[in-house]
Design a protein that fits this description.
Layout (H helix, E strand, L loop, with lengths): L1 H9 L15 H13 L6 H11 L17 H10 L3 H8 L16 E2 L4 E3 L2 E2 L4 E2 L2 E3 L2 E2 L4 E2 L4 E3 L2 E2 L4 E2 L4 E3 L1 E3 L4 E2 L4 E3 L6 E3 L4 E2 L3 E2 L4
Parallel strand pairs: 1-4, 2-5, 3-6, 4-7, 5-8, 6-9, 7-10, 8-11, 9-12, 10-13, 11-14, 12-15, 13-16, 14-17
Amino acid sequence: MANQQMMDTQKQFEYNLSLNIYIANTDWILKQLEKAQMSDSTADISKLLAALAAKYRSTAYEYTGYLRNIRDIKSYFDANMDMLDQKQFASLLQGNQKVITRIRNEVGNYYSAGSIVKNSIFGTGCRVFGEVKHSVISRRVEIDKNSWVLNSIVMSSVNIKKGAHVEYAILDKDVTIEAGVTIKGTLEKPIVIRKYDDVNDDWIRNRG
């Protein structure tokens, strides 16, 4: 019987996975951690909680919305790009259990008559004079004339000056890309610019 169940399981194409998120009484969980310490248990906290959930009476909540495991720069980049898909965006941010972020009462965005914006999302307080495509732009970002941003993630208070080109990049907070500078990564290896950096030279990553 056990062998038959194993064979049936192996034929499955989809499986229920644990998100490793647990809700438990604080005093109870502290006691369980003390017991594990007393027994010299080497299991990490996630393994311990999984074992306790199986041992004691517990219930599960099925989550069917957007999910991605962020474990490195590439997966972080991909998760942000997923938000450009309306279905993915709505699944994560507009479901019954809404994600509540800190409210900032700021002015709306300004898009000049010569700006071009396609398939991108913006925070508030941005000023756009250049071209933005397929990118995630945070608050208070300024994108100057004749500059363009493509397939990139731009954090708050970034200044992309005239004629700068940014592609497949992650720009952290308060970064300045000087006029005429090119930042170009690849889909598999986006370039990351650290916060507060003032970039005066080209950063170009060749494919492969």
